[in-house]
Design goal:
The chain has 338 residues and is an alpha/beta fold. The chain contains 13 helices and 12 strands. The chain has 2 domains: 226 residues, Aldolase class I (TIM Barrel); 87 residues, Arc Repressor Mutant, subunit A (Orthogonal Bundle). Strand 8, helix 6 and strand 9 form a beta-alpha-beta unit. Helix 9 runs antiparallel to helix 12. Bound molecules: iron/sulfur cluster.
Length: 338
């Protein structure tokens, strides 16, 4: 599948089927923390980056399999609202499926009435707002020329006023040394009160980011939680413990125990999407469970001290497993939301 991925297990949405509406790293931002790496096409131009017709063909094929998902989510490796057919695709999905829709967005286009109207087709909108100060906005999100954070905040406020029935869960991602000062928190508090989202999700850098930046401490997140008020909740700590798709983690470890393999080979072997396998490998690398090897220009992965590590890994993850796969008979691979 080219445009559909998952279902993946999202910390915020449950089982989520991802829909990618732009090619790899087409985005209006180039965030320092982006886990997909540097933006390759930084743009504000809305166009049909990937053909709506093909997205819907893939989606219909998936829906025919009758696999349970909590949400069909516009997300992926760039900004979904840059695809000018986003609204048409969302309407069509509403017609052909009873699934709830979610949109993960950087909100850079929410100052456009059309984009707000299209976003309102979703049941849940999860926009990012990492700072309310322009200078920091340029440092963290590195937006296209001409985007400023006041417009972004106003776009979100307009959306709340115009489509109050659509749930908004605002995400703030804290980066150490960028947006973790008292001044930043006060400005964010003011912006949050002005926008008045239903929920505020506090997150921090966990996976390897685009640049050499680091997450904030759990203590800081707890402090931010107090400052930002009752709608706030922390979603970005101990995420590996929340991850429950232990089966796929273990299958990957088992596969590369025998011989080093590329992401493509692992994905083929396990019948899983390459992007999902790639995300799991990133986590396994962070945990020190796999080693990346460059051989003749090709990247391979192999297990690292696997016997000792597997028992440690089980202690870390399995005991906390609450995977819906177990509760709801789901047999797909699964992973966390990006
Ligand atoms: S984190 Fe999201 S908004 Fe930022 S560069 Fe990556 S895809 Fe774009």
């Amino acid at each position: 599948m080219k445009y559909i991925f998952g279902p993946v297990l999202s910390r915020r949405l449950g089982l989520s089927l991802g829909v990618d509406l732009v090619p790899f790293k087409v985005c209006s931002f180039d965030c320092v923390y982006c886990e997909c790496g540097r933006t390759t096409l930084k743009t504000m131009e809305r166009k049909e980056y990937v053909p709506a017709k093909e997205v819907l063909i893939e989606l219909k094929a998936f829906l025919e399999k009758d696999i349970y998902v909590d949400f069909i989510t516009f997300s992926g490796f760039g900004e979904p609202t840059l695809n000018i057919k986003f609204g048409d695709i969302a309407s069509e999905i509403k017609k052909i499926s009873g699934n709830k829709l979610a949109l993960i967005t950087n909100a850079s286009l929410f100052n456009l009435k059309d984009v707000r109207k299209e976003a309102s087709l979703c049941d849940v909108v999860l926009p990012s707002l990492d700072t309310a100060i322009n200078e920091t906005f340029r440092r963290i999100n590195r937006p296209c020329e001409g985007i400023n954070v006041e417009d972004l905040i106003q776009g979100l406020k307009s959306f709340r006023d115009e489509y109050s029935e659509t749930k908004m869960a605002l995400e703030i991602l804290f980066v150490r040394g960028f947006n973790d000062s008292e001044k930043e928190l006060e400005a964010l508090k003011e912006a949050v009160e002005y926008i008045d989202p239903h929920e505020v999700h506090l997150n921090t850098v966990v996976r390897p980011p685009a640049e050499d930046v680091y997450g904030v401490s759990e203590e800081f997140l707890k402090y931010a939680l107090k400052v930002l008020g009752e709608k706030a909740r922390i979603v970005g700590v101990s995420h590996l413990k929340e991850r429950n798709c232990e089966a796929l983690f273990q299958a990957i470890i088992e596969a590369i125990k025998r011989r080093p393999m590329t992401i493509g080979e692992i994905a083929d072997l396990l019948g899983e999407d390459e992007r999902i396998v790639g995300k799991y490998l990133i986590d396994l690398e962070v945990l020190g469970k796999v080693q990346k090897i460059n051989h003749s220009g090709k990247i391979y992965y192999r297990g690292k001290n696997h016997e000792e590590d597997n028992s440690h890994f089980n202690a870390d993850v399995s005991s906390n497993c609450s995977c819906p796969s177990k509760k709801e008979g789901y047999n797909g691979g699964g992973s966390c939301q990006f």
